[in-house]
Structure formats: C-alpha cells, structure tokens
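User: Okay, second chain of the day. Same drill as before: sequence in, structure tokens out.
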Amino acid sequence: MQNFIKINEEDNVVVALKPIPAGEVLRIGVRDEDGAKEEIREIAALEEIPAGHKMAVLDIPEGGSVIKYGYCIGNAKEDIRAGGWIHTHNLKTALGDLLEYTYEPVLAKEGQKPGEERTFMGFLRPDGRAGVRNEIWIIPTVGCVNNVATSIAARANAWLSSPEGAAVRERVEEVIAFPHPYGCSQMGEDQEHTRQILADLVNHPNAGGVLVLGLGCENSNIDVLKPYIGDYDEERVKFLVAQECEDETAESLELIKKLAAHASHAVRQPVSADRLVIGMKCGGSDGLSGITANPLVGRFSDRLISCGGTTILTEVPEMFGAETILMNRCADRELFQKTVALINDFKQYFKSHNQTIYENPSPGNKKGGISTLEDKSLGCTQKSGSAPVRGVLQYGEQVRTPGLNLLSAPGNDLVAATALAAAGAQIVLFTTGRGTPFASPVPTVKISTNSGLAGRKANWIDFNAGGLAEDKSMEEETERLFDYVMEVASGRKVCSEEAGYHDMAIFKQGVTL
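Assistant: Same drill. Structure tokens below.
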C-alpha cells in the first residue's frame, strides 16, 4: 500500500496515509514550473509527517497558495520547502468575511444512470412518505416535563416487554422520549424555530405514534403548537397536559397503549428507494475524511439520486471556503441566490454575536491533519457528490424536492443531525475520523474514515470506509454502503440504537427570558 496520496493533479501537497518518517524518500508525480506536464520526482520528508497530514511537494513561498483537492486551502505563513510538513504552524486561512458571488453554472451530473429498481422493507404512511422505523415518540413541549417524558418511556418499554404488551411488541419497535431544554422563555424567531422543529418531529414518518406531552403554562403549549403540526390523525397523535392530570404518568401510559395499538397495524412492505431521504453530516474529521468516507457518501448520494431518492447536506459553516462549488452546481439562478443567502446569512449570524467567522477547525480536526476551514470545507462538501443542487431549505423547513438539497443548520453534531431528521431524513449518514457515540432522532450510521478507528470502536462504528485508503475500490465500497443503508432502512439497527441512544438538540439562536 502506498503511504501517501495526491488527491488532485494540481495539488502542491500530498496527504500521508500512514506516518512518513523524516528522511524517507517518496516518488511523487509533480507538474513542472510551466504546468505543462507531470514528472516523477524523488522528495525526501524533511521531518516526520503524521498520518492524515500534508507534505509539500514543491517549494511554496511565504504568502503562496497551498493547493489541495485542486483548490487553495490557505496561504503559507513562511517559506515552505518541498518535503516540509504543512499544518497550522505554517498555514493560515485565505478566507474573507461577507463576499460577492457570481453564478457560473457548471454541468453537474445527475448521478449514475438509473439501474435496476431498488427497494427496502419500510412502512408506507398515509401521506405517501415512508418510515424506516415504527416507533412511539414522546415529544415534550417544554423542558419542564423532560424527566416525566423519560420516565414514561421507560415504563412504556417495560410494558411492551411484558405479557400484556405482547400483542403489539412485534410491530412497535420502541417508545422513545426526546427531552430538550426549550419551549418556554424564548422570543421571536428562536421560539418559532423550536415550535417548528417539535412539529416536524411529531409529523416524522419513523414515528408510528406520537404523544405530545405539555406542562400547561409554557409559551409553546399544546394549543399553540397544534397549528404548526397541521392536520393530524387523531389515532396517531395524542396530547396530554400534565397540569390538567391527577397522575400524568398513568394517563400517558394509557394513551401510549392506544398509540401502540394503532401503530401495530403498520407492517413492513417493499418500498421503492425513491422514498428514501438521507441526511449527510460529518464530525470529528481527520485528514482522511475528504479522501475516504466523505467521497464515499458523495458517491452514495449520487447513487440514491439516480434511483429517484433524496439527500440533504447541512452544517453551513463547514461549507465556507467551498461554497462556490455548491453554488455553481445549483440547477437555476433562483437556487443560486438562495445558496448565497444561506452562506451570507450564517456569516452574519456569527458577526451579529461578535464572533470570528472562521473559528474552525476544532482541536480534534487539527490533530487529525486538518489545518484551515478551507481544508475542512473542501473535504466536507465531498459528501454532496456530483449531482445538481435541487433545493435549499431554511432551518426547520421540510424537504419537498427529490435530489440533492442544502439545509441551513450549524456544524454542531447533535443540532445538525436533529435538523436533518426534522427536514424529513429517515436516516443520517455520519462520517467521522475521531469517533463519537451520539445518536439523533433517526438511525445514525457512523462511517469511519480509517480502519484503525473502526477496529478500536466497533461499538460506535457501523461502516468502515478506511479500506479506500488501502486496497478497496470506490465502486465496490459504494455498492456495499448502498446495500448496508437498505438493510438499515429495512430494520437493521445501528450501533447507537443497539446501545439505546436517542439524542435531540434544537438550535438556540435568541435570548432566554
């Protein structure tokens, strides 16, 4: 196996696939000074290059561009010699603040040509959407009833496991509470976003039944929340106000038994892959993220879109530095303008709080070899594949258009993954080079960027993309990931589900009263 990779022929760096000792000589294809042709040069590492980190293959002057993925990822802080280690000590971002953009559309691919129809075993809902789980969800309207909701879920699951619950146990998979600290003492858009996210989860197709649990005196009480939920099936959605009950736990359990009886009528059946909506997110990235797992998810996205399905890319701050790639893949000028607003509105959000726009990458990212936000963003956006952008969604907005969509949400793992679920994703693909045990309201597939992580944390990692840095081909790994996602959509539990993890987080954007 080669111990380095040059991602793009225009690059003036290579990425170490394993540690390169100081003095080791590498044979690397390098373009001549005129850029006319490539020649093989022998370049000795001037110092140890850690795995996932960058080594210069040309002399780069102070202020010169460092090129990776075929794009500038920042400027050299000092002269860097060929064979030198490039990282935060000698590389700085080249990004500015609010920018002007020009629509320069490129011929984006529609993904692979349609092949045989693919199906999964899912739950068709009356509104035409499909669920990949048939769970009962407890949605608190306010943080004051979080512990009550969690207690109710525990008692309801105990009932499901009892002889009394046997009649529905085979078809109702679990009762899950989604505690959160909001729903009161909020103002303006901050409060509106909380209400919209809660309503989105109430309407999610993975929930065969929903208990909306309120306190009674909160700003986002049940009567206020109902218009956001819209029309609903009274057999599928039940409401309970704790202040109006003598024993809210006992009454909730009776309602859950009714919800479970209703949900038990749903059965898994073959469903076309065009009903799948898959969220795409990364976290704890390393130097291999943009080489293995993220491009693999991009190929998966293209593959699903070719079947008529839908994917959603989010974490807007991690598009900074690579946003023009997405803008120029917009299917029309209106979508381009929406993407410009998506980017600049998020930058303005940073500025309005007097925060640095480019306060990224994280310490874990840097340890893994990512040096600047451009470096991270160019790797992050690999998850978008090559399909045109067909939709741009505001936070809390649900997906309506098949194909690739962009969603406004921050980079925070729990907040972004929840936003993907609220937008309609039945599954989230989460790539990681550092590892994480977190979950989201929907099955969250952890995809490791390197085989070492997959081996160390088999209780966290569901799919290893590290073989792409070894001897696996992108074509075979794409098909293997596609097959795995179809299995998850058909009921196979991911690691976080097996562990009983179910997280939810709402984007806090305003003052607290």
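Residues 152 and 392 are 37 Å apart (CA to CA).

User: Thanks, on to the next one.
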